[in-house]
Amino acid sequence: MKGRLRRRIGGLVAVPIFARLGFHLRRLAGDINPSFFLRLFLGLTTLVLVAAILVALAEGPRDTVGGFLGSVGKSFYWAVTVVMGSGDASYVTTVPGFIISWLLVAIGVAIVGIITATLVGFVIDFILKEGQGMGASGYRDHIVVCGWNSTARELITELSTDEYTTKVVVIHDAEKNPAGRGVYFINGDITSAEDLGRAGIEDAMAAIICPADASNDADMRSILCCLAIEAIAPQVRTVVEVNNPGHVDHFHRANADEVVVTSRIASRLLARSSLYPGLAEIVTDMVSGGTGSELYRVAIPDNCVGLSLDELSAHLRSEHSATLLGVNRDGVAYVNPPSDFRLEKGDDAVVVAESLGTLAPLKLQHD
To answer: Max alpha carbon distance in the chain (Å)?
Structure first.
């Protein structure tokens, strides 16, 4: 029973909206002085007790067994119910009793007003802080985009297509969300452990690091971001855009999983396209969602273990209308392996297809 209740509570906490509410409640609780509420409670209790004693004196004995103390006990219970808004109006019959009753009713209305104002203030604070990027995402298995530039803008557009359903969180030092609707925004520093924690980096599927500009300093901040993510969540896959090709080794030392030098890719694609017309359009179509064929990394079916690359290619074409490009094994890509290459358990394939269809996408899950 306790285990089931614990799982239900854990399930609620895993819901993003409840996780965000919990974050803001903890933040507000850190700014509250507990002694203030203790003094308020003691003061209210003393006031109700004094009112109960005065009512007991004004109304006379109400308890023949307990005497005056019994009458005070009943009057105290009545006073508490009056403050809570459910007191018995016929309990008092004297003028002093009526006056005390009205004062208690006024105190009850004031308490209700304070509670209402507190709740409204919390909601307003929640909305304002969320809009300013001061909240916490509460997502799991999402993508965290660290930094903002033109590349980040394009990849957000790509990830917002119907082909992808993964939630995206952007960390950027700005006053408003640069990515627009549908993307959760964290106003912060990509090298800050606290801000990365608010983005849910420990529960993320991957992190994409984009340099703020084309300078070497931007690459240095990206390296610091890699180191911060590695220290907080080493299981998260990091993909980094690099300005200077000379910094690639530094990113590998920072344990970046994949390093993309956009200038190098663009220059090589331009060179190939000048020799082979139409190549750029083909590559762009494959790496873009929407219409046409796209690249997918898929799990190889169990019944394909032991097949050659040609046999796997024929199977994917006939059964899934997919074209095989290469096979990955233990982090090594085999694009054009020898003829005696055989598939092993744990291998996965990169294919080109219009959709996944019945193919199972490769799930790279973190611990």
So the answer is: 108
Nearest to 108 by CA among 77, 85, 74, 91: 85
Domain range 293-367, its CATH number among 3.30.70.1450, 1.10.1040.10, 3.30.2350.10, 1.10.3720.10: 3.30.70.1450
In the 3-class helix/strand/coil scheme, how is 246-295 assigned residue by residue? Answer: HHHHHHHHCCCCEEEEHHHHHHHHHHHHHHCCCHHHHHHHHCCCCCCCEE
DSSP 8-state class, residue 308: B
Residue 60 near residue 83 (C-beta atoms within 8 A):
no
Write the DSSP assignment of 7-41 as a string of letters.
HHHHHHHHSHHHHHHHHHHHHHHHT--HHHHHHHH
Which pLDDT value is given to residue 12?
45
Q: What is the DSSP pairing of strand 237-242 with strand 206-209?
A: parallel
- 33-131: which CATH topology? Helix Hairpins (1.10.287)
Q: What is the CATH number of domain 143-266?
A: 3.40.50.720
- Domain ranges for the chain, please list them: 33-131, 143-266, 293-367
The encoded tokens of residue 185 equal 């925004």
Q: Out of 57-66, 95-104, 223-232, give the one with best mean pLDDT.
A: 223-232
Residue-wise pLDDT for 120-155, tens only, equals 887 787 777 877 888 888 898 899 999 999 989 988
Cα–Cα distance for residue pair 177/184, rounded to 1 Å: 8
Residue 292's pLDDT band (boundaries 50, 70, 90)? low
